[in-house]
């Protein structure tokens, strides 16, 4: 049996940018990075497989996919204004769309600063940063195993976000 096709981190990023545009909510690069991280972490926890293959690094301001950061860094701290055609998601399986929708419904209401705070309070990012001072950058990867171990003990719900 063939393994399910992974998405790219760019496809996940574009989905969240599109959702933000549809819902009329601004999305910055920082917020986008955290949504991509949560999409991967929760997919690993719930499905026991990766959503995408790109590595997530434990940057100073939280989890980040370098390729996505570089793609959208031109927007700085401002909302991303790249227009996304929702039709591009027709080739993505319904279970992956539903998963990203659930992540958006739980985390999409929060800004990048709050999501940074949230990721900084969780074990996967903290474990990846062990021995690294808070102001020092790193390309150290956040472990898929650590994501699974942490998030598989939780339930994907807004209650987990609000009660921290």
Instruction: Determine the fraction of residues in helical runs and give it as a percent range.
Output: 40-55%
* Helix/sheet category: mainly alpha
State the distance separating the first and last CA atoms: 41 Å
Number of strands: 2
Instruction: Tell the overall outline.
Output: globular
User: What characterizes the major β-sheet?
Assistant: 2 strands, antiparallel
Strand order of the largest sheet: 1-2
Mean pLDDT over the residues: 93
Beta strand %: under 5%
State the order of secondary-structure elements, H for helix, E for strand: HHEEHHHHHH
Please state the CA-atom Rg, rounded to the nearest Å. Answer: 15 Å
What count of helical segments does DSSP give?
Answer: 8
Overall structural domain count: 1
Record the SSE blueprint:
Elements: H1 9-23, H2 29-47, E1 57-59, E2 62-64, H3 66-72, H4 94-107, H5 112-120, H6 123-128, H7 144-151, H8 158-162
Antiparallel strand pairs: 1-2
């Amino acid at each position: 049996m063939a393994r399910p096709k992974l998405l790219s981190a760019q496809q996940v990023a574009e989905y969240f940018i599109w959702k933000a545009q549809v819902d009329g909510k601004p999305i910055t690069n920082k917020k986008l990075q955290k949504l991509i991280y949560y999409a991967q972490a929760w997919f690993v926890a719930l499905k026991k497989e990766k959503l995408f293959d790109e590595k997530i690094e434990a940057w100073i301001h939280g989890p980040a996919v370098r390729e996505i950061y570089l793609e959208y860094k031109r927007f700085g701290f401002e909302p991303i204004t790249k227009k996304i055609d929702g039709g591009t998601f027709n080739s993505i399986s319904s279970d992956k769309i539903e998963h990203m929708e659930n992540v958006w419904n739980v985390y999409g209401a929060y800004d990048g600063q709050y999501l940074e705070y949230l990721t900084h309070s969780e074990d996967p990012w903290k474990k990846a940063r062990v021995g690294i001072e808070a102001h020092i950058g790193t390309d150290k990867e956040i472990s898929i195993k650590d994501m699974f171990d942490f998030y598989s003990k939780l339930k994907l719900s807004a209650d987990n976000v609000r009660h921290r």
